[in-house]
Amino acid sequence: MEGAHPEIMRRLNEINLDKTEGYGIDPYSAHAMELIREACQAPKAEVRFLVGGTQTNAVVIDSMLRFNEGIIAPQTGHINVHEAGAIEACGHKVIPAKAVLGKIDLDALETYLETFTEELNAVGWEHYVVPRAIYVSMSTELGTLYSLAELTRLRGLCDRFNLYLYIDGARLGYALAAPACDVTLPDVARLADVFYIGGTKVGALFGEAVVVTNPAIQVTRGHIKGRGAMLAKGWLLGVQFETLFTDGLYFKIARNAVMQALKLRDGLVEKGYEIYLDSPTNQQFVVMPTKRLETLSQKVGYDVICTLDAQNTVIRFCTSWATTDAQLAHLISCL
Amino acid sequence: MEGAHPEIMRRLNEINLDKTEGYGIDPYSAHAMELIREACQAPKAEVRFLVGGTQTNAVVIDSMLRFNEGIIAPQTGHINVHEAGAIEACGHKVIPAKAVLGKIDLDALETYLETFTEELNAVGWEHYVVPRAIYVSMSTELGTLYSLAELTRLRGLCDRFNLYLYIDGARLGYALAAPACDVTLPDVARLADVFYIGGTKVGALFGEAVVVTNPAIQVTRGHIKGRGAMLAKGWLLGVQFETLFTDGLYFKIARNAVMQALKLRDGLVEKGYEIYLDSPTNQQFVVMPTKRLETLSQKVGYDVICTLDAQNTVIRFCTSWATTDAQLAHLISCL
Amino acid sequence: MEGAHPEIMRRLNEINLDKTEGYGIDPYSAHAMELIREACQAPKAEVRFLVGGTQTNAVVIDSMLRFNEGIIAPQTGHINVHEAGAIEACGHKVIPAKAVLGKIDLDALETYLETFTEELNAVGWEHYVVPRAIYVSMSTELGTLYSLAELTRLRGLCDRFNLYLYIDGARLGYALAAPACDVTLPDVARLADVFYIGGTKVGALFGEAVVVTNPAIQVTRGHIKGRGAMLAKGWLLGVQFETLFTDGLYFKIARNAVMQALKLRDGLVEKGYEIYLDSPTNQQFVVMPTKRLETLSQKVGYDVICTLDAQNTVIRFCTSWATTDAQLAHLISCL
Amino acid sequence: MEGAHPEIMRRLNEINLDKTEGYGIDPYSAHAMELIREACQAPKAEVRFLVGGTQTNAVVIDSMLRFNEGIIAPQTGHINVHEAGAIEACGHKVIPAKAVLGKIDLDALETYLETFTEELNAVGWEHYVVPRAIYVSMSTELGTLYSLAELTRLRGLCDRFNLYLYIDGARLGYALAAPACDVTLPDVARLADVFYIGGTKVGALFGEAVVVTNPAIQVTRGHIKGRGAMLAKGWLLGVQFETLFTDGLYFKIARNAVMQALKLRDGLVEKGYEIYLDSPTNQQFVVMPTKRLETLSQKVGYDVICTLDAQNTVIRFCTSWATTDAQLAHLISCL
Lengths: 335, 335, 335, 335
Prior knowledge:
Four copies of one chain form a homotetramer.
Chain A: H1 6-14, H2 27-40, E1 46-50, H3 53-64, E2 69-74, H4 78-81, H5 86-89, E3 94-97, E4 99-100, E5 103-104, H6 106-123, E6 130-137, H7 148-161, E7 164-168, H8 172-176, H9 185-191, E8 194-198, E9 208-212, H10 221-226, H11 235-244, H12 249-270, E10 274-277, E11 283-289, H13 293-297, E12 303-307, E13 312-318, H14 325-334
Parallel strand pairs in A: 2-3, 2-6, 6-7, 7-8
Antiparallel strand pairs in A: 1-9, 4-5, 8-9, 10-11, 11-13, 12-13
Helix pairs in contact in A: 1-11, 2-11, 6-7
């Protein structure tokens, strides 16, 4: 990981000595909210800036659920596996659903909702955790994408079963920038009840922008404050999102990352490596002989995902706005 | 469901007008604790009386886990499906494990623990919910039993992976009384770190006796009180368990129920019904033509478990200490 | 403390062997709810039966408050001092208010609400715990009473400052039965948004009946279940409240206790003891020379309240439905 | 408020494009921890970096307390009034103690602890919230200081009553830099069980450094992560604290602020203003005619603290590392 896009650093330096009102009620934040509403074509949406993804998920989900209500997430969803129990620490169950390559299996979900609703009605809902929301990530933790048709179907299931749809957009930029993606930001805003636009992974030092389009969900400032998720110098968030949503910087950043990732994929294939799963975004998963890892780890950065078999390991490369052709060439030459 | 065994009612009536100290520090409770320690052959165990199963599970599990620790339970375990999110409401994740006929699949569990431990070590445990305890029910929600060999293997896994073993004994009496059961109460006390002996389902008006044999787990009176699980007239619990553990009443009650259940099973088989799953205890699951249910429900009590196919439904009959031969004969005649 | 009123025991014995549906959806509970709605002249009220006071307070208050909202309680209120942090364990702050003899000081409360509202508006409510409800006990923990004028003023403050009024009626019977009380049960139902009618302290083995008159507050069955406060054999609660609200038994029980308490007070005064505080209900507080306590404690039951000075201790006597003239005479003869 | 000290911005810019490991296990963080341990003369202390004060208080306090344990705080303490119920949201009661000018009244505290301990022993601790820790701020929310003698006495009370001492050091720099302060950083580390060194208010963009000197308290990385308080690009915290604790920058920053504040106080007195309370640190509280505020607010920044009487308001000026003589002169000229 690196820091922020140079344009963001430039702005942070520029206003560093200005006196600005704290806790997110500054003009930069107000302007950034306006820019985001415009980009989403959601003029009435409520926008909130938080520092990181885990706290964002916890506050948003805690805002949606009441007692003995839960949120359905794909088995591999970030809230189900990688957030140290943040949702349960707020008192709520994450209900795991069958996932395929990081995406919730919509057929299985529909069957589950039909069957479970019958059971709730037969036995009495008071004995169960009642599903009240669905969580999906876009792009997913495995770099995969929901198509517009799939998101639309998910929305339909939510309408039919009285569920909120929450989209974790930690990597939303990389999804929207992928050539294979037929979903736009206004689509996301229209189909989800609430979602967030990730800054941390897409050019900011830190920061996530929650967009609430369903007024039945109130992500209050008191809630954000009381969960320790309100930044004292809140304008740091406002300035970063203002910069990202000026002149389309957010999308440019994402596009570079995705384009470099796709080049990387081509390079890997050309060198004869097996691609572990087909990701159209900035994460690429590749099968690597385990014995090569020791040498490789001294030259390039990657994450170990899992042991595939006795000889092979799956590793992940992530590109970013900062990935250059030279870096790519170096990486491929090391393989 | 019926009320309490007549001997319990007799005792409750007998002392009804006595003035007794409240909140469980009465002599009946003290005596009952002593009787339970003896029956368990666990002279140093801490015994606590609570009112019902859900609050017992919540308080015990909340006592075992710290932040970002979770408890593994079979997918079908009561805490995972039937307690309205009571464990999550205390801030803890229930980690579902593969189950077969209500029992945790020990091979799958071992593989999961090995693999997940590797992942924790590789990625950093701070991002995950770390398993810290295992929950099993004896007998299970489906009437099935763990053998002594299986419980011993489970204990071994707990020792190897630094986990507590917690046994939900809501139906413990029916398990121990089953001819097919090779586990004794002292075995349970020796193998579990903490468990409870269910009263509500085995002859009491209400009440569960928690037995803590591992002193590292402290189920404190303050915790019980603050979770609303301390009965003001606590002696009502003490008197009931004193009665149940005098002259082996608890085991007699359970034996009658199990024997009648096995007779019922034979009667069902004889009449040509398909037994849905082979339960050696007081719950019997049978496949019934759905169209017969309307008539049947006016004559006898049962629970609907699930729809098997277009024509058939699985239903459950539960016997108890109060089930008589005449009732059985009537039930079978209705089928 | 003793058990239940004989009429309640008679009924529990009578139906003990009947098979009754569990979890509170039985006909006894339905009938008891109806009787309570009638007694309250609140035909649309929602009635719920829970086992004990602490769990009742926790579930009701958790149902009223959202994130960073709190409940105001007199400094000496049960939820602030005697429930082991049950409200905080559900995530909510108890905001202590000045109390005089167990009653919230209404002048001080009004000033506080005015001042604090200004502060919230000036600084931003998101940094504070915002009062959303007021908790009072009737009678209070010190046996004192709110007059109708005081409750009406409290209601007015609640309306003005957008607060719910919650009345803890663990001892409601003793309040309503006091000759000094000018409040009726329908008054309570009309003025409070939610309250409970205590059974545990007024003739039942256990049980509290929550009455919700404001439909904006939903005390759901799922919430009760998930907090471990739903009794499996729920009809035990229904039968007890059915009995208490048949032929005015609840009020007869309370009246006897209060009348005996007032006789006791007269006896104490006659013998020259100093009454510590003037209680018009079933609790009497008296100043006793500390050196007499050792002898006294072997003859009669009382609670130590506090050390008054080097020579004297304040103790409390509680009467009940079961207190007889003979017992009173014995007690006074011991003093 | 302004951003960060220029030296911090310089460093953040310098390493912005470096690839650094996330989640706080980077070399900058490790070095900063080492520098802090040295400055504290606490070679075995555990140091953790979090983003903001409210989340820091919540995580630290949640790490210290078990069920039905509470933390004593001065009535005016930040956790009791200004954090939107963050501590209660983690399930714990803040027990308010009498405060004078922001400082806990030690005589009153001692009496309370003695009396309450007696009550706990007499009635049974399980019914209460048991004090387990004491929270104080240094400097306090009103700019006042504890002397070394006072902190030592507080430590003694903690030892006697088995309490942890936790010092909120959001403004610790300004305390230590005050000429009137006789406490050093090693004193704080020696007397507290855990404390934090505030970065947000003392030259950083954001960040607080928790220092745990009592190994019985474990502020784990899993807890920090699960409360949403672990920064993905954790090195941003490490770099800032590394810079603050290199060449004594932290203390220089604080010294400038305090010196300017004292000059400001002299200027205010000279102009005839009444100083509301005598603060020896960077916050100055002054009585201002209310009618002057409208004009004043257009020229300089201040916070309204409270309405003093019909004509006057108490306002607060805060200085920082960035406050210059010219700014001071301008401010005084406006008054």
